[in-house]
Automatic annotation (TrEMBL):
UniProt-listed Pfam families: WD40 (PF00400)
Organism from which the protein derives: Streptomyces pratens
Keywords, in A-Z order: Repeat, WD repeat
Coiled-coil stretches: none
Taxonomy, superkingdom: Bacteria
The name this protein goes by in its record: WD40 repeat domain-containing protein
């Protein structure tokens, strides 16, 4: 397993902040990030958080949790499938933290951890749906305390030792690990991604994908239902006196309610990534797409501190004219000519939104961006805003320009047809049962890939499922109106040759191949060459760019790809420049231009670095201004 090498600066993280946790006395804050590190902050002066020291994992870090008994112990959970337990000195700027043990028998990414009240045992929940118990004194696996049919997203332990777990299967489970057979379950219609026990242990708050928070008894009876937002509610934390609770939602807001469910405050900042919230000493910490956490006063909802700098992690690409457009976590679209002579092409920074750009599409005259905040923007070639939608109710991870529509796919599975000029809603299609991760033109409609594990083709209505993967589908690509490929978290790429029925009403898969990827999630896919003998490119969370040659007449077993190149972080997205070239972006900020030669081999032709391009563009602006 390769180690992330994002080289964060001294002032913060080099990628979005995934979790936040206050030390029990409130003096320090631990944050973790997609950059593979945990950063400890001195927050004794909450208006001026001070970075103290950094801890490292090999892959992105999903969770941090302080020990409630031994308040100098911190557990950190990572996509490298390990949990580390560290001893943190009171002044880590003068004394280094010590790694005490590593819990390393996990079979998948760990999403969250929670300490048992004894301060020795730790509950870990992971992408494989399992909830496991560990003895941190010895590093020994102590058993399984529950399992979910889909990703287990969060765990919380009450002061009485009741373990609550929630997952994408909609199940809420509560058990006492010391009392076998004590498990009680409740099934929700929506995915459940967050949970937190009140400090008294009498109420469990859960956050649902339909924007609802439920307050439950320990036996999972409903005390109160609170509608938070029109989009998914993601994280929840209680004030220390249990008089209020805070919720982070995918509308980019922090919501504060009293214990009776009355709304007290709503704090909006497009830079927030409220998949994580924490409360201590009347302050709320919130995750961020920028380089550090947000701190907010709980009583007044007044911002106390904000991150200092954006990150330009690439999420999407599109081609407009001769320029490659790259949509970034910063909300900026970076535009440059990948074919320009010389090592330094002309670069433009187009500040489209304060919210991360998750998706891009172009139609020759304008480009469109879909944002985490749920808006779709239409901009002209100069980056000037022409039109913008109201929030579509969820983040927009996919866009596709087809026929007379712009199709937007949202986090909650909606497929929305927009007028390409005004962005007014024109139609709604049959939704996926999960987030629509990718859309590309195909025939007179489009192909789609979603977290419901399916790949489908057609228009907004009358869509046909081509195949199903063993896990969520991250990306879809098409070639020549005849070939579709999809990349999945099940570590495979499926590629199919399609024909239309004689009546032209339905698509049929006449050839299909399953290509073995690396032993990690395959994030993005592209197709090059001829539909009769296509070349498949796929990028993975193993940092690798892989290539397969497809022979439709050869069905002799499963095939592994050839490694073309490697990044310093996972491969993020691809955009085909023409039938023989594709742009490939990694979360390390590298952009590769990859081409297909006459023999069907793939080679890297040019390399660019987003930070360098952004710096070059800023220097050009300063030169003009001066």
């Amino acid at each position: 397993m390769r180690t992330i090498d994002l080289r964060p600066g001294p002032a913060g993280h080099a990628a979005p902040v995934t979790d936040v946790a206050f030390r029990p006395d409130g003096s320090q804050l631990a944050t973790c990030s997609y950059d593979g590190t945990v950063l400890l902050w001195d927050v004794s002066r909450p208006t001026r958080p001070k970075p103290l020291t950094r801890l490292h994992h090999r892959r992105l870090v999903n969770a941090v949790q302080w020990n409630p008994v031994r308040t100098d112990l911190l557990a950190t959970a990572s996509a490298d499938k390990t949990v580390a337990v560290w001893r943190i000195p009171e002044h880590p700027d003068t004394r280094r933290p010590t790694l005490l043990t590593v819990l390393a028998r996990h079979t998948d990414d760990i999403n969250a951890v929670a300490w048992m009240p004894d301060g020795h045992r730790l509950i870990c929940v992971s992408e494989d749906g399992r909830a496991t118990l560990w003895d941190t004194r010895t590093g020994a696996f102590a058993g399984e305390v529950g399992s979910h049919a889909a990703h287990c997203m969060m765990v919380s332990v009450s002061r009485d030792g009741l373990v609550a777990t929630v997952g994408e299967d909609g199940m809420v489970a509560v058990c006492d690990p010391d009392r076998p057979g004590s498990t009680v379950e409740r099934h929700c219609a929506a995915s459940v991604e967050g949970c937190a026990w009140s400090h008294s242990g009498t109420t469990l708050a859960i956050t649902r994908d339909d924007g609802v928070v439920e307050l439950l008894t320990p036996r999972l009876a409903v005390r109160r239902t609170v509608t938070v937002a029109q989009t998914a509610a993601r994280a929840v934390a209680w004030a220390e006196d249990d008089a209020s609770f805070v919720v982070g939602a995918y509308d980019g807001c922090l919501h504060v309610f009293d214990a009776d469910g009355r709304r007290l405050h709503r704090v909006h900042d497009a830079r927030m990534w409220p998949r994580s919230v924490a409360v201590a000493r009347g302050r709320v910490a919130v995750g961020s797409f920028w380089n550090g956490p947000h701190l907010v006063d709980l009583a007044t909802a007044t911002p106390l501190a904000e991150p200092s700098a954006p990150n330009h992690g690439p999420n999407a690409m599109a081609v407009l004219g001769g320029e490659l457009l790259v949509g970034c976590d910063s909300g900026t679209v970076i535009a440059f000519d990948p074919d320009a002579d010389g090592a330094a092409p002309s670069v433009r920074l187009l500040p489209v939104s304060d919210s991360p750009v998750l998706s891009l599409a172009a139609d020759g005259e304008a480009f469109y961006t879909g944002t985490y905040a749920g808006h779709v923007h239409r901009c002209n070639a100069d980056g000037e805003l022409i039109a913008v939608t109201e929030s579509l109710g969820a983040p927009v991870p996919s866009l596709c320009r087809v026929a007379d529509l712009l199709v937007a796919g949202t986090y909650n599975g909606a497929l929305i047809g927009l007028d390409p000029s005004s962005l007014a809603e024109a139609d709604r299609g049959e939704p996926h049962a999960g987030s629509v991760k990718s859309l590309v033109p195909f025939g007179d409609g489009f192909a789609s890939a979603a977290t419901d594990r399916t790949t489908a083709v057609g228009g907004l209505h009358g869509r046909a499922t081509l195949w199903e993967h063993g896990n969520l589908v991250n990306s879809v690509a098409t070639l020549g109106g005849r070939v579709v490929a999809s990349a999945s978290r099940d570590h495979t790429v499926k590629v199919g040759l399609l024909e239309r029925s004689p009546a032209g009403e339905a698509w049929k898969v006449v050839r299909r191949r399953t290509l073995l990827g690396p032993d990690e999630s395959v994030k993005c896919v592209a197709l090059l060459g001829d539909p009769d003998s296509p070349v498949v490119l796929a990028g993975s969370y193993d940092f690798g760019l892989h290539r397969w040659k497809v022979d439709w007449d050869d069905d002799n077993g499963l095939r592994s790809g050839r490694l073309v190149d490697e990044f310093r972080q996972g491969v993020s997205c691809m955009s085909r420049l023409d039938e023989r070239r594709v742009a490939v972006a990694g979360w390390d900020g590298q952009i590769l231009i990859v081409g297909l030669d006459a023999d069907g081999e793939v080679h890297v032709r040019r390399r660019f670095d987003l930070d360098t391009l952004a710096r070059q563009a800023r220097q050009s602006l300063w030169a003009v201004a001066s």
